[in-house]
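Predict fold of Class I SAM-dependent methyltransferase; 224 aa.
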Amino acid sequence: MKSSEWHTSAKTRWEDNADHWHSKSVEMWTTGSRKAVIPFFHEYAGKARTVADLGCGDGYGSYLLYEKGYWVTGMDFSRNMIELAKEQERDNLSFVQGDLNSLPFDGGQFDAVMAINSVEWTENPLHTLNEIERIVRKDGFICIGLLGPTAHPRENAYPRLQGKEVICNTMMPWELEKLAQDKGWKTVGEDYIYKKGVKPTHTDNLSNELKQALTFTTLFMFQK
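Predicted 3D structure, encoded as tokens:
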């Protein structure tokens, strides 16, 4: 698939999915698969003030960051998502439509970035990481949540095995970690979100590598 086709197909996918996403967003962030994200972010990046939420969807995660006292700019590819998000705008919480391949922000503009399950939907993850690095100040924080091997949305990459075009890459958590290390980012935090049924007693004694292999999402906090 040409870059322009990937770009167009990914955008269409999330434009069409906006209402469905919005209907379940609060549940995901408060009691579901994303409930650990904001506490994880705040634990490691609590001293940050300005935050970019990249791939913010309908903006509820951005709102939760705002409630923690951060000055938040949410960005999403989808115009429909941003229209939903803008209903929550207020002082120190704003939203803009934009592209992870070419972020509409100045270099070093933010103390921290949060990108949850959004890097997977880019064709060239390294280029995306370079763009994220560009907008974060020196010693700033980069929180990325990457879909793990057990995540249901990864079925979007399955058709590649049949020779078909897809808009979801198959990067594994360990690969993201290695890309970050190659760029000189320091890993300062890591956490694991599992599917229902996995108990702490199942995973406590496992290595990080094995924990990643079981995750729905692996959360990383890097420092530039």
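The longest helix spans residues 3-30.
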